[in-house]
Amino acid sequence: MIHPGAKGFYPGKHGSMPLHSHVEVTETYTVVSGRGGVALNGQEMEISASNGELVIPPGVVHTVWNADEEVPLVLSLTCNPPGPLGESFFLTQASPTVTHAHADAGVSYDAGSLPEVNPLQIILLYSEAGVVLADLPPALWRLVEPPLAWFARTVGYRHQYPQYAAAAAA
Question: Are 7 and 61 in contact (CB under 8 A)?
């Protein structure tokens, strides 16, 4: 669920994550209720329950957001394959404004929203999950991602934290 007014990475795009693509994962979104927006390789469109499934194959640059000022966007998301980190990616990233079954713990929850998380934490998490940040040219991402992920680990960031998995299990 993406709450109306949730802080996102892009102005007016409530709850939006940074533009990104996946190395291996195909994401399938189904809108359960509400009205959302999606950017796919630079093209924006509206999504709703009447659209059916939205399938985003590996390599497609995208982000999703709540396009409504008053109503939450409720989504069902399937990742196939689940990706290198599986559910721990979502548990680690969990946010108070982008709700899933275990959204009461995670780096975004602790910071208040994903845009307020230290960029080194985001880079490390995305690097380990096979997610490519797309606000940088691909060649630049390939150049800066390994040393920045290494530096993030060196200063104490992790791609998963036991306390978030424990909170989900409780």
Answer: no
